[in-house]
Amino acid sequence: MSNYLIERIDADSNITLRKQTTVVALDGDETLRAIHLNGPDGTVVLPCAGLFSFIGADPSSLWLSGCAALDENGFVPTDLSLTSEQLGLEWESLERSPLPFETSHPGLFAIGDLRSGSMKRVATAVGEGSASVRSVHQYLAFGPPPTPLAPNA
Q1: Which residue, of 1, 108, 130, 150, has the greatest Cβ tally within 10 A?
Q2: pTM
């Protein structure tokens, strides 16, 4: 979340921040009337006329660990954000730099909230998804990466 939003939330006396709490149910008919929260104090039901669901602050990238480089916060660096250490030896044989949205693993692309340095907005993720199609086509045009020579070959 952007710092200016955090500051505005902290300063607003009408907002109660509930940590370690999950929305478990919504009540209403044509409009939202109440939310059910499960947290440290158990389950509570609060009157509520609107709900904003903020997702994407945590990258949920552990499944990529060992396949693609992750930054110190678990986000996936791409293209120009990748360091030479993150690129590794396989990139030397490709004789090219990573394409836009390409990760440290050739042919693996990351967009949206998962990507290190992204804007963390839905519109941005949609735009990145559209733009990444060009990179995928470029990658496919390169053909498969060269196969390393086996020892004693």
Answers
A1: 108
A2: 0.64
